[in-house]
Design a protein that fits this description.
733 residues; alpha/beta; Rossmann fold
Amino acid sequence: MNIEAIIKNIESKDSISVDESFSYAKICANELRNNENLGHRLLIYILENFKKIPEHTKDIWFDIVEMAGFYPYLKKERGEPSTIDGKIRKEFHLSENLENIYLHEEQKILKYILESDKNLIVSAPTSFGKSLLIEEIVASGKYKNIVVIQPTLALLDETRKKLKRYKERYKIIVKTTQEPATDKGNLFLLTAERVMEYPNLPPIDFLIIDEFYKLSQKRDDERAYILNNAFYKLLKKYNPKFYLLGPNIDGISEGFAQKYNAVFYKTDYKLVESKIIDVYLEHKKKFGSRGEKKQYKEHVLFELLNTEKEQFIIYCSSPKKVRDLAWKFCNYLKNNEVEKKIDHELPLIEWIKENVHTNWNLIEILEYSIGINDGALIKHINSSIVDYFNEGRLKYLFCTTTLIEGVNTSAKNIVFFDNTKGNRKSIDFFDYSNIKGRAGRFMIHYIGKIYNFNPPPKKEKLIIDIPFYQQKPIEDEVLITLHKNDVKDIVKNTEQYKKLSELTDDERELFRKNGVSVWGQKRILEQLYKDIKRKQNLITWNGIPNYQQLSYLIELSWDNLLRSGETTRPMTKKRLIKVTFDYTVNKDILFLIKSNYTYYKEKNYFSKYNDNELFNEAIRDVFNIFRHWFQFKVPKWLNVVNNIQKFVCEKKNLEAGDYAYYATLLENDFVPEKLSVLLEYGIPKSAIEKIKNEINLEEISNDEKLIKEVISLINKRPHLFLKYEIEKIKGNL
């Protein structure tokens, strides 16, 4: 009997006989020696159906669990190996640094490599437990200054929550304005952009890059060059030990591991199996993206979601698709007279009613136990919805790749509903593997299900190029940062390098420091030289800009700093100027939502929408503006142009302006600098405004003091805060 036949037999029966249990154990043990992946697959299915196994044969299976190195599952099932040798090996896998945590076999191997003089680059499945090794590194106390680079603020905040237990040993730094400690170690939890912007990093002993595949230029990630520059900067200046981790990668740039004394370790070892259900095959030629076929596909999805008891994550192509599909499913449940799924109001709902609007359909969506997660929601709302889902308070989660790549969550069931990212780019095998990898949660499920509503992409070999090392291809923004001795001879003979070499040394230093489009900066530099005399009032301003000053700066940035092919829709240059100025004046998100709604009405956008649908679209768009433009893009542009205008003014012997104050205000939602770290910790602005009125900011000397004051305040005067605000403060600080 082959493995798949055994699995089918196990799943179809209510119980397994003694003879079958012994027979399957023998087959499993043999497969672990001869074909480890098949042996693991059978063992995981046995564990999933462990209640069917005769009690007096379970000790044999515990020996096989130990043989496979699945030590965390011994603890979960309260099992013990039957031999002394097995018990010794089990205790050998008990973490020396993490309390009551057992490492599985492959984690133990990686820990050995990390403890050697070698650097480590790991490709392993989502359920492998790569991030547990980050905590191992921190908990060991071996390194004084550690940098962790992750692609999203949400992932960094999740990491901060896990690692805040080490705050007595390390100061945790999440902002470029926070000074490193001198009396203890420092743990820098930063995006690549913030590594480049951090003014004076102390000597870095250890570097961790999560989702390191984002180094690759071939993955079409517009931020790849920044991650390359951050990695190169830290390697060149400090030569730290490093640990790079990511999923589903077959190789890296040839020669990189040898040059940097690293081990590339690829493993398919996993403790959670995926069961694939090809829904699209059951409905051949009935699914589509338009008309009746689109409606039919959605109906099949809704029927599936409503009949299964376990949680679901549903992958959608875009934030708009997430909202539309979640709302349609909510209406499906209402039309089928399904009762609301929660027996009490989630604290977030009260906050939305008081701080956004009672007409936002997210309220009703949440009431039906449906969550949404995408790049167009305010940070604390996104994180709360994921928390509620992880706690089992929400059953469904509609998401984009933002969740798949940027947050550690999973579910028993994953639906691969759309086969594109956005409207154009197809999901490739790497993306699909990441989506599929969310099926099943380690230590909660043994088996996850992936429901394919589209044919899965064909398997491709993925080799991650590291542009600063490989240099073929290499973007100008990476090449300009490289020390001359690190540029390969073949690159020195290219027109690209020769053109960059024509820049003056101080221009190269300026453009390198700003870390955005080299030739966009060059054009801005030339424009400022032309305008500095006749438009000096538009350039050399301080404090808060007037409309003309802001208009000049945004036009200059929009025309020169947007990357080729970068999506801006539905934003336009003219509209960005207006909404940025309006928010600077009003600082009121509801004002922005209402004006956005009026804008849609005047432009007759979404003509098929009724007023309530249009209002919800206005909310979605405003939160997207908030996340993408106010908290990231515009402050970055302000700082870049600020540095260039200072450079020009110095050359022209003129007094320069300073945009840094305004850039910081905009990025921090006009929260005072001393309280801005609370935004990083996921505290809603509504709560921060109340805190601002209750504590003396002059007495706040550091973040630790601030946190103590805030916790003391909510304990003494909880009536000042909404339940949601208290939930976020207590959970995040």
